Amino acid sequence: MSENNREAFGFTITHQGEGLARTGIIKTPHGEIATPAFIPVGTKATVKAVLPETMKDLGSQALLANAYHLYLQPGPDVVDAAGGLGAFMNWPGPTFTDSGGFQVLSLGVGFKKVLAMDTSMVHRDDVIAENKERLAHVDDDGVTFKSHLDGSLHRFTPEVSMQVQHKLGADIIFGFDECTTLMNTRQYQELAVDRTYAWAHRCIAEHRRSHLRLGTQVYRRAPATHFRARR
Fold this sequence. Notes:
By secondary structure, this protein is α/β, with parallel strands linked by helices. The protein contains nine helices and ten strands. Helix 7 (158-168) crosses helix 8 (186-210).
């Protein structure tokens, strides 16, 4: 990251409470975000049925879009050619992109927005929604998945996720992670946490090669808090 880009980002603590609780301000090239913050989701670069101007009037500080969906449609090259995510969605403020990890796995096992509709069925590691085909297969290098739109085959690795997000051009991007169902076995949950940790290092390395955005890593979905405490 160049010195000019470094100066465009920052985080200032405005109040420190007892323990780890705090408030602060995230500085980005497109404005500031007072934290803690509620960030509305515009999955496909639009908050459904709400204009960007209205989101601003409602007090939104930033908007989040999803790398998986924008990668499939309209494609990161189209968003890049339009001037990046903010210009593409006509939003002047800060932007985030999720890594696509949740969508690759949730859509890949047929559960859409949730990862387990009926937990009585999913005390195993090959969980799949009823009457659905498995569309995603994960390994230590990344995930191979079929598009839920047209069945075409794709491959996401930590490096690919970073490349896609950099091309989309959000201010803050997320590291690629493996998402699990709520009822996967403990052994698999531990494997997924370790895999996500390894992917985080690869995301950081790829991010540094691109030198453009502020990155963050997410550890999510594992139901047992001790998995998170290990890191």
